Amino acid sequence: MKNKSNFLLLAALLGGLLFNFLFWKERLALNLFIYSAYLLMITVINPDVIKSTKLKIYGLAHILASVLVVINNSDLTLVSYYISLILFIGFAHNQQIRTVFITFLAAVIQMVTVPFNALQNLSKVRIGNLNLKPVFKLIKYIFIPFIIVTLFTCLYSAANEVFGNAINTLLTNVSNLIYDVLHFFFKDLIINRIAFFIFGLILSGGLIITFFNKGLALAELKYKEQLLRIRSEFKKKTVWFEFAQVFTGDLLLRKLALKTEFITGLISFIALNLLLLFLNIIDIWWLWLGKGKALAETNYSAELHDGTNALIFSIIMAMAVIVYFFRGNLNFYSKSKVLRILAYAWMIQNFILIISVFIRDAHYIEFHGLTHKRIGVIVFAILCIIGLATVYFKVAKQKTFFYLLKINGNIWFVLLLAFSIINWDVFIVKYNLAHKETIAFDSDYLLSLSDKTLPVLDKNRMKLQHTESKSEYGTEIAKPETLAANQQKLNQRIGFFKERYERVSWVSWNLQDWTTAKYFNNKQIRD
């Protein structure tokens, strides 16, 4: 036990030092891959961690995410990196957990409770004949009172201005004293660097030291993926039950008859199918077949932003309604076949609704070009299709809501990694430049994208001029920027990139910055 505690604490200390070296005043790139490789190695060596297939899968997924940060270096790859890291750590220390959502929560709890975990491990450390347990036992007695006193000091400071000023003055004097003492003995010491190291130490400890309470994993084990017919009875009355019964009488003791629930669901699904059928007929006539007003006269901005968000939200609500009615014993009702057919019909109609979302987005892209938000609409529509498919499987195979969380969480994580493979900024710039003559070209938007797009923009600098754009009333929207002004913005962006690229070391290396710097260096040589 003592060897294990010594190993974990030493690993956390080395992790803090490595964090300090890799990330101090650096950009996130190759340093993330190196830090992840260290965490992966320590996790595999940790005797508490079971070397299962699940650990290997999520470990490889996290390594892939860190490699994508080095290759693409985008905000999306950073999001993928952080999520994959949390899931890897969560699954590594809680391999009984089955859903990514609970795993995420377990990893967050592990990192938040790192002081308690560290104290528990430090109390087990032995250095020769020296036992640190009595020392940390005393700290444990002081720690909770310290937290309570600190909390109430903050409250009293907010309530009383004089008391707050006194506390603020005291803390300022103490911090100045500590600063002066440290600088007296260590003149070259940088206080900010020490704080950064402490942050890295705490973070590394939270990612390495295992959370000792497995209650969350044990609680999740109670949830099943297959629905079973159950008979619920009010065996135990809680305080909340007694309080609610004062206002509801014996309503809580009544069971909603299965037949009543079936009729309620039947009426609901018939009405919803008719309502959605009317909406889909309008969309097919006006949008699919183009029988309404001419496409060129359609206000796609209003249609996309005002309509698409509402449609996607309605699809999510549709899935929620289906899950509600097929959550329990109604699945086993003898007449539930009719309800299933109506639910399947509604799912099909919601799928038609998603196709309408795709068409709206495609029309908007055709006339106004690509942006991250328009790509986001496509992604959300794909997620809705996957959600409908899993809801269908839930109804057909009588699965639980827990099953939906498990399967959709895994699919979303895989899609997040898959979408991170694409270099979206460069893709958007190349698409819009290639279709400049047919879209309402917005050079301001392209110039606002990341530095990785600079070589493509520089090659096409003569195209950086706005095209005429029409409002919904047919009037031209003013674009005051000239070609020369946009080229000047591009030159400023290139200058900022060169300055930024020279300020960082090799640990901030990434493929996109290296390619961009190489392009402009070669261009200078040719000139």
Automatic annotation (TrEMBL):
Record field: transmembrane: 7-24, 30-50, 62-91, 97-118, 138-159, 190-212, 262-288, 308-326, 338-359, 375-395, 407-427
Swiss-Prot/TrEMBL keywords: Membrane, Transmembrane, Transmembrane helix
Keyword Ubl conjugation (UniProt): no
Coiled-coil segments: none
Pfam families per the UniProt record, alphabetical: DUF4153 (PF13687)
Protein name: DUF4173 domain-containing protein
